Amino acid sequence: MNKQVEKKKLNHRSKIPVLGFGTWKLKGTECQNAVFNALKVGYRHIDTADAYKNHQEVGKAINGSGIKRDEIFLTSKVWRTSLNPEDLKKDTKRFLDELDTDYLDLLLVHWPNDDVPISDTIGAMKELKTEGLVNHIGVSNFTALQLKILLNSSQHILGKDISIANHQFEFHPTLQQKELVKFSHQNDISVTAYSPLGHGQDLEIKKIKDIAGARGCTEAQVILAWIRQKGIIAIPRSSDPKHIQENFESLNVELSDEDLGKIDTLDNNNRIVNPSFSPFGK
Ligand SMILES: NC(=O)c1ccc[n+]([C@@H]2O[C@H](COP(=O)([O-])OP(=O)(O)OC[C@H]3O[C@@H](n4cnc5c(N)ncnc54)[C@H](OP(=O)(O)O)[C@@H]3O)[C@@H](O)[C@H]2O)c1
Q1: What is the CATH number of domain 14-264?
Q2: What's the CA dihedral at 159, 160, 166, 167 to 10 degrees?
Q3: Which of 12, 81, 123, 202 is the most buried (most CB within 10 A)?
Protein backbone atom coordinates (compact mmCIF):
# COMPACT_ATOMS: atom_id res chain seq x y z
CA MET A 1 0.00 0.00 0.00
CA ASN A 2 1.43 3.38 -0.95
CA LYS A 3 1.66 6.24 1.43
CA GLN A 4 -0.15 9.43 0.48
CA VAL A 5 2.49 11.70 -0.99
CA GLU A 6 4.00 13.50 1.95
CA LYS A 7 4.06 17.29 1.59
CA LYS A 8 6.77 19.72 2.51
CA LYS A 9 6.42 23.28 3.64
CA LEU A 10 6.79 25.51 0.57
CA ASN A 11 6.64 28.74 2.48
CA HIS A 12 4.73 29.95 5.50
CA ARG A 13 1.40 29.23 3.79
CA SER A 14 1.57 26.30 1.42
CA LYS A 15 2.88 22.84 0.84
CA ILE A 16 4.39 20.93 -2.07
CA PRO A 17 4.36 17.12 -2.53
CA VAL A 18 7.90 15.87 -1.78
CA LEU A 19 7.85 13.59 -4.81
CA GLY A 20 6.96 14.94 -8.23
CA PHE A 21 7.12 13.69 -11.79
CA GLY A 22 9.63 15.18 -14.27
CA THR A 23 8.80 15.56 -17.96
CA TRP A 24 11.97 16.79 -19.67
CA LYS A 25 12.48 14.96 -22.99
CA LEU A 26 8.97 13.47 -22.87
CA LYS A 27 6.99 14.47 -25.93
CA GLY A 28 3.71 13.67 -27.69
CA THR A 29 1.81 10.52 -26.76
CA GLU A 30 4.72 9.19 -24.72
CA CYS A 31 4.51 12.29 -22.51
CA GLN A 32 0.73 12.19 -22.19
CA ASN A 33 0.77 8.47 -21.26
CA ALA A 34 3.61 8.89 -18.78
CA VAL A 35 1.94 11.81 -16.95
CA PHE A 36 -1.42 10.00 -16.99
CA ASN A 37 0.27 6.88 -15.55
CA ALA A 38 2.05 8.91 -12.91
CA LEU A 39 -1.22 10.50 -11.78
CA LYS A 40 -2.91 7.09 -11.72
CA VAL A 41 -0.13 5.70 -9.52
CA GLY A 42 -0.50 8.58 -7.06
CA TYR A 43 1.87 11.40 -8.05
CA ARG A 44 0.24 14.78 -7.45
CA HIS A 45 3.09 17.03 -8.55
CA ILE A 46 4.08 17.47 -12.20
CA ASP A 47 7.12 19.41 -13.44
CA THR A 48 7.22 20.85 -16.95
CA ALA A 49 8.72 23.88 -18.75
CA ASP A 50 8.17 25.93 -21.86
CA ALA A 51 11.44 24.54 -23.21
CA TYR A 52 10.18 20.93 -22.96
CA LYS A 53 7.51 21.66 -25.61
CA ASN A 54 5.02 19.33 -23.93
CA HIS A 55 2.56 21.65 -22.16
CA GLN A 56 -0.37 20.44 -24.27
CA GLU A 57 0.29 16.77 -23.53
CA VAL A 58 0.76 17.48 -19.81
CA GLY A 59 -2.52 19.42 -19.81
CA LYS A 60 -4.38 16.63 -21.60
CA ALA A 61 -3.08 14.04 -19.14
CA ILE A 62 -4.12 16.16 -16.15
CA ASN A 63 -7.55 16.95 -17.56
CA GLY A 64 -8.07 13.32 -18.65
CA SER A 65 -7.09 11.92 -15.27
CA GLY A 66 -10.34 12.83 -13.56
CA ILE A 67 -8.32 14.21 -10.64
CA LYS A 68 -9.42 17.63 -9.46
CA ARG A 69 -7.04 20.36 -10.57
CA ASP A 70 -6.61 21.65 -7.03
CA GLU A 71 -5.26 18.25 -5.92
CA ILE A 72 -2.35 18.54 -8.37
CA PHE A 73 0.72 20.74 -7.94
CA LEU A 74 1.78 21.97 -11.39
CA THR A 75 5.09 23.71 -12.08
CA SER A 76 6.31 25.31 -15.29
CA LYS A 77 9.32 27.45 -16.15
CA VAL A 78 9.90 30.50 -18.25
CA TRP A 79 12.94 30.46 -20.55
CA ARG A 80 15.92 32.75 -19.94
CA THR A 81 15.31 34.87 -23.06
CA SER A 82 11.80 35.79 -21.82
CA LEU A 83 12.71 37.31 -18.47
CA ASN A 84 11.78 40.89 -19.33
CA PRO A 85 8.40 41.73 -17.79
CA GLU A 86 6.42 41.96 -21.01
CA ASP A 87 7.60 38.63 -22.47
CA LEU A 88 7.36 36.86 -19.12
CA LYS A 89 3.72 37.85 -18.64
CA LYS A 90 2.81 37.06 -22.26
CA ASP A 91 4.56 33.67 -22.15
CA THR A 92 2.98 32.64 -18.86
CA LYS A 93 -0.51 33.38 -20.23
CA ARG A 94 0.34 31.21 -23.24
CA PHE A 95 1.47 28.40 -20.89
CA LEU A 96 -1.96 28.48 -19.22
CA ASP A 97 -3.66 28.15 -22.61
CA GLU A 98 -1.38 25.29 -23.64
CA LEU A 99 -1.82 23.50 -20.32
CA ASP A 100 -5.56 24.24 -20.41
CA THR A 101 -5.56 25.44 -16.82
CA ASP A 102 -6.42 28.67 -15.01
CA TYR A 103 -3.27 28.83 -12.91
CA LEU A 104 0.17 27.40 -12.18
CA ASP A 105 1.06 26.32 -8.67
CA LEU A 106 4.64 27.36 -9.24
CA LEU A 107 6.33 29.46 -11.92
CA LEU A 108 10.12 29.27 -12.06
CA VAL A 109 12.77 31.24 -13.90
CA HIS A 110 14.35 28.29 -15.78
CA TRP A 111 17.92 29.69 -15.98
CA PRO A 112 19.27 33.06 -14.86
CA ASN A 113 20.08 35.76 -17.41
CA ASP A 114 22.28 38.52 -16.07
CA ASP A 115 21.29 40.79 -19.00
CA VAL A 116 17.86 41.37 -17.42
CA PRO A 117 17.69 42.92 -13.92
CA ILE A 118 16.24 40.16 -11.77
CA SER A 119 14.13 42.70 -9.86
CA ASP A 120 12.25 43.45 -13.14
CA THR A 121 11.53 39.74 -13.60
CA ILE A 122 10.40 39.34 -10.01
CA GLY A 123 8.13 42.39 -10.34
CA ALA A 124 6.37 40.75 -13.32
CA MET A 125 6.06 37.44 -11.46
CA LYS A 126 4.51 39.28 -8.55
CA GLU A 127 1.92 40.80 -10.90
CA LEU A 128 1.04 37.32 -12.19
CA LYS A 129 0.62 36.16 -8.62
CA THR A 130 -1.54 39.14 -7.74
CA GLU A 131 -3.74 38.35 -10.77
CA GLY A 132 -4.14 34.76 -9.50
CA LEU A 133 -2.39 33.22 -12.51
CA VAL A 134 0.42 31.70 -10.44
CA ASN A 135 0.31 30.67 -6.79
CA HIS A 136 4.05 30.65 -6.07
CA ILE A 137 7.21 31.93 -7.69
CA GLY A 138 10.76 30.64 -7.69
CA VAL A 139 13.95 30.11 -9.63
CA SER A 140 16.07 27.34 -11.10
CA ASN A 141 19.81 27.00 -11.70
CA PHE A 142 20.83 30.08 -9.70
CA THR A 143 24.18 30.21 -7.93
CA ALA A 144 24.18 31.24 -4.27
CA LEU A 145 25.50 34.66 -5.33
CA GLN A 146 22.70 35.13 -7.89
CA LEU A 147 20.18 34.09 -5.26
CA LYS A 148 21.66 36.57 -2.80
CA ILE A 149 21.45 39.38 -5.37
CA LEU A 150 17.86 38.41 -6.12
CA LEU A 151 16.88 38.46 -2.44
CA ASN A 152 18.63 41.77 -1.79
CA SER A 153 17.25 43.54 -4.86
CA SER A 154 13.72 42.15 -4.75
CA GLN A 155 12.71 42.12 -1.11
CA HIS A 156 11.08 45.54 -1.37
CA ILE A 157 9.12 44.39 -4.45
CA LEU A 158 7.95 41.14 -2.90
CA GLY A 159 6.93 42.68 0.42
CA LYS A 160 6.17 40.47 3.39
CA ASP A 161 3.40 38.41 1.82
CA ILE A 162 5.27 36.98 -1.20
CA SER A 163 8.47 34.97 -1.04
CA ILE A 164 10.77 33.06 -3.35
CA ALA A 165 9.21 29.70 -2.56
CA ASN A 166 11.44 27.25 -4.39
CA HIS A 167 14.84 26.75 -5.95
CA GLN A 168 15.20 23.88 -8.43
CA PHE A 169 18.68 22.66 -9.31
CA GLU A 170 20.64 19.53 -10.19
CA PHE A 171 21.07 17.32 -7.17
CA HIS A 172 21.88 13.60 -6.93
CA PRO A 173 24.42 11.45 -5.04
CA THR A 174 27.35 12.46 -7.28
CA LEU A 175 26.39 16.19 -7.35
CA GLN A 176 25.25 17.34 -3.91
CA GLN A 177 25.76 21.15 -4.09
CA LYS A 178 25.80 21.24 -0.28
CA GLU A 179 26.41 24.98 0.06
CA LEU A 180 23.61 25.84 -2.37
CA VAL A 181 21.17 23.57 -0.49
CA LYS A 182 22.23 25.15 2.81
CA PHE A 183 21.94 28.71 1.51
CA SER A 184 18.49 28.04 -0.01
CA HIS A 185 17.16 26.40 3.15
CA GLN A 186 18.63 29.14 5.36
CA ASN A 187 16.57 31.61 3.36
CA ASP A 188 13.41 29.53 3.78
CA ILE A 189 13.45 28.51 0.12
CA SER A 190 12.46 24.89 -0.51
CA VAL A 191 14.81 22.89 -2.74
CA THR A 192 13.78 20.65 -5.63
CA ALA A 193 16.33 18.13 -6.90
CA TYR A 194 16.31 17.84 -10.67
CA SER A 195 17.96 14.91 -12.45
CA PRO A 196 17.66 13.14 -9.07
CA LEU A 197 18.85 9.85 -10.55
CA GLY A 198 21.70 11.57 -12.39
CA HIS A 199 19.98 10.54 -15.66
CA GLY A 200 20.26 6.95 -14.44
CA GLN A 201 24.07 7.16 -14.03
CA ASP A 202 23.97 7.15 -10.23
CA LEU A 203 21.96 3.90 -10.23
CA GLU A 204 25.17 2.09 -11.19
CA ILE A 205 27.16 3.04 -8.06
CA LYS A 206 28.28 0.04 -6.00
CA LYS A 207 27.48 1.56 -2.59
CA ILE A 208 23.94 2.30 -3.76
CA LYS A 209 23.55 -1.20 -5.20
CA ASP A 210 24.75 -2.68 -1.87
CA ILE A 211 22.22 -0.62 0.13
CA ALA A 212 19.42 -1.61 -2.26
CA GLY A 213 20.43 -5.28 -2.05
CA ALA A 214 20.51 -5.23 1.75
CA ARG A 215 17.12 -3.49 1.99
CA GLY A 216 15.38 -5.47 -0.75
CA CYS A 217 14.49 -2.35 -2.70
CA THR A 218 15.81 -0.83 -5.93
CA GLU A 219 18.68 1.60 -6.50
CA ALA A 220 16.26 4.32 -7.65
CA GLN A 221 14.25 3.91 -4.45
CA VAL A 222 17.43 4.24 -2.35
CA ILE A 223 18.38 7.51 -4.05
CA LEU A 224 14.87 8.98 -3.87
CA ALA A 225 14.54 8.05 -0.18
CA TRP A 226 17.95 9.65 0.53
CA ILE A 227 16.81 12.88 -1.15
CA ARG A 228 13.48 12.90 0.71
CA GLN A 229 15.14 12.23 4.06
CA LYS A 230 17.36 15.29 3.43
CA GLY A 231 14.23 17.45 3.26
CA ILE A 232 14.58 17.92 -0.50
CA ILE A 233 11.85 17.45 -3.12
CA ALA A 234 12.62 15.09 -6.05
CA ILE A 235 11.13 15.00 -9.55
CA PRO A 236 12.33 11.81 -11.28
CA ARG A 237 11.32 11.30 -14.91
CA SER A 238 10.43 8.01 -16.54
CA SER A 239 8.47 6.78 -19.53
CA ASP A 240 8.42 3.22 -18.20
CA PRO A 241 5.28 2.35 -16.19
CA LYS A 242 7.28 -0.05 -13.98
CA HIS A 243 9.81 2.65 -13.13
CA ILE A 244 7.04 5.23 -12.55
CA GLN A 245 5.44 2.90 -9.98
CA GLU A 246 8.78 1.90 -8.45
CA ASN A 247 9.86 5.51 -8.02
CA PHE A 248 6.56 6.38 -6.36
CA GLU A 249 7.01 3.50 -3.92
CA SER A 250 10.28 5.05 -2.75
CA LEU A 251 7.94 6.88 -0.35
CA ASN A 252 7.75 3.60 1.59
CA VAL A 253 11.55 3.29 1.89
CA GLU A 254 13.26 4.63 5.02
CA LEU A 255 17.07 4.57 5.16
CA SER A 256 19.17 4.33 8.32
CA ASP A 257 21.55 7.12 9.35
CA GLU A 258 24.39 4.80 8.36
CA ASP A 259 23.00 4.37 4.82
CA LEU A 260 22.39 8.11 4.51
CA GLY A 261 25.99 8.76 5.58
CA LYS A 262 27.36 6.34 2.98
CA ILE A 263 25.52 8.15 0.18
CA ASP A 264 26.67 11.52 1.52
CA THR A 265 30.26 10.47 0.70
CA LEU A 266 29.54 9.94 -3.02
CA ASP A 267 29.66 13.61 -4.07
CA ASN A 268 32.23 14.12 -6.85
CA ASN A 269 30.90 17.23 -8.59
CA ASN A 270 29.44 15.16 -11.45
CA ARG A 271 27.42 17.90 -13.12
CA ILE A 272 25.36 16.46 -15.98
CA VAL A 273 23.25 19.43 -17.10
CA ASN A 274 25.73 22.14 -18.11
CA PRO A 275 24.71 24.17 -21.17
CA SER A 276 26.95 26.96 -22.53
CA PHE A 277 24.94 29.62 -20.66
CA SER A 278 25.10 27.82 -17.30
CA PRO A 279 26.32 30.07 -14.46
CA PHE A 280 28.07 27.03 -12.91
CA GLY A 281 30.73 26.83 -15.64
CA LYS A 282 32.38 23.71 -16.95
N1 LIG B 1 15.30 23.12 -14.12
C2 LIG B 1 16.10 22.52 -14.98
O3 LIG B 1 16.96 23.15 -15.63
C4 LIG B 1 15.98 21.04 -15.17
C5 LIG B 1 17.04 20.34 -15.80
C6 LIG B 1 16.92 18.96 -15.90
C7 LIG B 1 15.81 18.30 -15.41
N8 LIG B 1 14.79 19.01 -14.84
C9 LIG B 1 13.56 18.34 -14.34
O10 LIG B 1 13.93 17.21 -13.56
C11 LIG B 1 13.33 16.04 -14.11
C12 LIG B 1 14.17 14.80 -13.83
O13 LIG B 1 15.47 14.92 -14.34
P14 LIG B 1 15.97 14.18 -15.67
O15 LIG B 1 14.84 13.93 -16.55
O16 LIG B 1 17.09 15.01 -16.16
O17 LIG B 1 16.64 12.84 -15.18
P18 LIG B 1 16.42 11.72 -14.04
O19 LIG B 1 15.04 11.75 -13.51
O20 LIG B 1 17.58 11.82 -13.10
O21 LIG B 1 16.65 10.39 -14.89
C22 LIG B 1 15.80 9.98 -15.89
C23 LIG B 1 16.38 8.69 -16.48
O24 LIG B 1 16.38 7.67 -15.47
C25 LIG B 1 15.67 6.52 -15.95
N26 LIG B 1 14.91 5.99 -14.81
C27 LIG B 1 13.89 6.60 -14.14
N28 LIG B 1 13.44 5.80 -13.14
C29 LIG B 1 14.18 4.68 -13.19
C30 LIG B 1 14.19 3.48 -12.43
N31 LIG B 1 13.35 3.30 -11.42
N32 LIG B 1 15.07 2.51 -12.76
C33 LIG B 1 15.95 2.68 -13.81
N34 LIG B 1 16.00 3.79 -14.57
C35 LIG B 1 15.12 4.78 -14.25
C36 LIG B 1 14.76 7.02 -17.04
O37 LIG B 1 14.57 6.00 -18.00
P38 LIG B 1 13.11 5.31 -18.22
O39 LIG B 1 12.28 6.31 -18.95
O40 LIG B 1 13.46 4.10 -19.04
O41 LIG B 1 12.57 4.96 -16.89
C42 LIG B 1 15.58 8.15 -17.64
O43 LIG B 1 16.50 7.65 -18.58
C44 LIG B 1 13.20 16.40 -15.59
O45 LIG B 1 12.40 15.50 -16.31
C46 LIG B 1 12.69 17.81 -15.49
O47 LIG B 1 11.31 17.82 -15.17
C48 LIG B 1 14.87 20.36 -14.70
Answers
A1: 3.20.20.100
A2: 60
A3: 202
